[in-house]
Amino acid sequence: MTVILSTSDVHSPENLPLYLEALKNTSVEPDLILFAGDMVDRNRVFMLKPVIDATLKKHPNAKIIGVFGNEEYRGFEKLYVQMYKEVTWLNDEYIVLDNKEICIIGTRGALDKPTMWQARNIPGIEKYYFQLPFKIEQMAIELRKLGCRRIILLSHYGVTHRNLAGEREESYPYLACSRFERIIKRDLFDIVIHGHVHMGIIELITIRNVPVYNVSLPARRKLVEIQI
Question: Vertex 108, ends 103 and 110: CA angle to 5°?
Fold first, then answer.
């Protein structure tokens, strides 16, 4: 059995006290810790250090894998990689673990509609959001061909509108990319994990028997435990 702890949206230092309390209350010893983005607030790169230090102090033997969120600004990915080598960063790429027992695809994810700021400031963002589900689908197909037994999709943005209850309905297109549902229904993933949905009252849904978790810390108030 593989034990996973996952969270997102720490927005350090904003939710750092909540994270430290949630970390203290974990009672399992995880094999993997998955960060689903927005671990710092407004690209405060140095504020990730207390998160990682506390995490490794509590769980020194766990492997940490993370993706970037919208608060880890585009163009700064290399800086995070250089500064925080304790984390295996996935940016629209995958990692194969334990002799193909578990494979993880990591991405910021996509939105049904870019925010006004994104549309103004990120050239080609609409095209990127449109193409990303197909790119992730091809990665999953490749991993299945490689013989991966369990494939996890780790995304910052949501992947469906079905678990956004608690948020304003008019904000749904800016919280998730519903086009990922088609891929999830193809049985390409065994588990899907995302964050970004701070007010989401639903932790877990299934899409054609595939569990989809919203692990956003402001919503869950804990680290979400997942067992494979």
Answer: 110
Cβ proximity of 12 and 19 under 8 Å: yes
Q: What token pair was written down for 36? A: 């689903």
- Do the Cβ atoms of 33 and 45 come closer than 8 Å? no
Domains of the chain (ranges, CATH numbers): 3-227 (3.60.21.10)
Distance CA 188, CA 46 (A): 36
Across the range 157-162, mean pLDDT stands at: 98
What are the structure tokens assigned to 20, written together?
């430290």
pLDDT value of residue 191: 98
Q: Are 137 and 186 in contact (CB under 8 A)?
A: yes
Residue found by looking up tokens 């984390």 in the block = 87
Model confidence pLDDT, tens digit, residues 51-62? 999 999 999 999
